[in-house]
Amino acid sequence: AQSVTQLDSHVSVSEGTPVLLRCNYSSSYSPSLFWYVQHPNKGLQLLLKYTSAATLVKGINGFEAEFKKSETSFHLTKPSAHMSDAAEYFCVVTPKSSGTYKYIFGTGTRLKVLA
Amino acid sequence: EAEVAQSPRYKITEKSQAVAFWCDPISGHATLYWYRQILGQGPELLVQFQDESVVDDSQLPKDRFSAERLKGVDSTLKIQPAELGDSAMYLCASSLGGQHLSGNTIYFGEGSWLTVV
Fold first, then answer.
1. Residue of B nearest to A106 (CA)
2. What is the DSSP letter of A84?
3. CA-CA distances (angstroms) from residue B55 to A31, A38, B68, B113?
4. What is the pLDDT of residues B35-93, one digit of tens each?
5. CA of B85, closest CA in chain A: separation in Å?
6. CA–CA separation, A66 and A54 (whole Å)
7. To the nearest whole angstrom, how far is the Cα of B93 from the nearest Cα of chain A?
8. What secondary structure, in 3-state letters, does A10-76 show?
9. Tens digit of pLDDT for each residue in A1-47?
């Protein structure tokens, strides 16, 4: 079965320290992968996506993610956290089944940034 | 920058009443999605349209939920009768292509919060 697992439901970091949000996927072939961010009471905004090109993907607001097929991971990182990064982050995998692509959302990771 | 428009942003309704949400996707986007997001969880797809046709409504509770996209542009999601468990955020999203395209980016609206009392 195709799935995506966000390993941490909550992550707390201090402002100015690195951020690591972990995502593992299960797919029978190389899927496309996305990270979305959701601020309180807002819709989801695309941070970055991987579609079988470069394995290191750079996104908006200084975030990046690396696709590692051998580890079936797509972890999201940022060198230095900012207070405005506090939000919910969703990893999304789009496995292919019978010629169509389904978007499967992880359960989310809530990032808290401490002053 | 083009956006997905949704209304209303917030709706409080009594149990057993009818409620409707409206969505206007980004111009030119053929695919429209309705997701439901319960507090603390990820979005769950309710229904997906390709132009005016439904391509996936496998998770839509069809006894009380209905969705239409009559002219292949804007869409309405209706719930009748509303139940307490329907309290959630209803997100509309759109994309250029459909399920046959890999790497298709979905753009989300701000969402409509529903509280059933």
1. B42
2. G
3. 21, 26, 12, 25
4. 999 988 889 999 999 899 998 899 999 999 999 998 889 999 999 999 999 999 999 99
5. 19
6. 9
7. 9
8. EEEEECCCCEEECEEEECCCCCEEEEEEECCCCCEEEEEEECCCCCEEECHHHCEEEEECCCCEEEE
9. 678 999 999 999 999 999 999 999 987 676 789 999 999 888 899 99
